């Protein structure tokens, strides 16, 4: 049984004490975790992805996954950091995709309902780059099963998008009420911690431990508005190109390689 953690600094001290010599762990802010218990995490130590926690994302037709590749250059664990890269395809004779990217998912390996999530990450930006930290419901398909976007970043923006999706938010003609997303300012090239606090009545998005947007349950709107009562799993994805990210301009191959680095991911439950 993991003990209740009062501040993130306690966790960081333990990690640093067991980190390999020479590892350059990023400086970590302190967050108040009084009343929370760590139930699942990955510090990305070692040199291989934990197969009990993650699988690599497979290619599909949706914009977020249509450049996914198993190319080993695109995913690396080094000095306690997960590197997800995006590159221009230098072997078009083997793969028709113009760019190649990587992502990981905890689908069928870890999912949870209600709690606090924190993911520390940064990115190397590029025109057409679209890194994201997000969650999907175990059941119901999309969008009926729900989606929680803890962070999406586009191009060279100094903001991130934090959004929820459901059948209700994707029903034509439905007013955006309650507002299902917002943006938050960031220092684009810095390490930032993205997350949420999620319970039966609301989802509170956070950036660096501070609330950035709240999406409430509206009971009269039913399950179409609130599919967020089931378990959700994680997707950490690096993508290049797509209808949304390219609205401000075409992908520029001169900007690549690009990518996202993830220092750690942690999930907490309320301590009883």
UniProtKB/TrEMBL annotation:
The keyword rRNA-binding does not apply. InterPro entries: Beta-glucanase-like, ConA-like_dom_sf, Glycosyl_Hydrlase_16. GO terms for biological process: carbohydrate metabolic process. Keywords: Hydrolase, Signal. Pfam families: Glyco_hydro_16. Residues 38-272 form the GH16 domain. This is Glycoside hydrolase family 16 protein.
């Amino acid at each position: 049984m993991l003990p209740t953690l009062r501040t993130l600094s306690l966790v960081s001290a333990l990690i640093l004490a067991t980190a390999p010599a020479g590892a350059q762990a990023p400086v970590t802010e302190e967050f108040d975790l009084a009343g929370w218990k760590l139930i699942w995490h990955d510090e990305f130590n070692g040199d291989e992805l934990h197969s009990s926690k993650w699988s690599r994302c497979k290619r599909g037709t949706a914009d977020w996954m249509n450049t996914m590749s198993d190319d080993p250059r695109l995913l690396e664990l080094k000095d306690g950091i997960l590197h997800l890269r995006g590159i221009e395809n230098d072997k078009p004779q083997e793969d028709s995709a113009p760019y190649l990217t990587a992502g990981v998912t905890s689908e069928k390996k870890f999912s949870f309902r209600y709690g606090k999530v924190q993911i520390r990450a940064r990115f190397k930006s590029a025109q057409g780059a679209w890194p994201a930290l997000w969650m999907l419901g175990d059941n119901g398909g999309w969008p009926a099963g729900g989606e929680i976007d803890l962070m999406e970043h586009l191009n060279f923006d100094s903001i991130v998008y934090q959004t929820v999706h459901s059948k209700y938010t994707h029903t034509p003609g439905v007013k955006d009420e309650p507002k299902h997303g917002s943006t938050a300012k960031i220092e684009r090239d810095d390490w930032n911690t993205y997350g949420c606090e999620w319970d039966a009545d609301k989802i509170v998005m956070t950036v660096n431990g501070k609330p950035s947007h709240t999406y409430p349950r509206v009971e009269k709107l039913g399950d179409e508005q609130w599919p967020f009562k089931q378990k959700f799993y994680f997707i950490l994805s690096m993508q290049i190109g797509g209808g949304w990210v390219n609205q401000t301009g075409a992908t520029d191959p001169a900007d690549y390689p690009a990518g996202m680095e993830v220092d750690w991911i942690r999930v907490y439950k309320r301590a009883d």
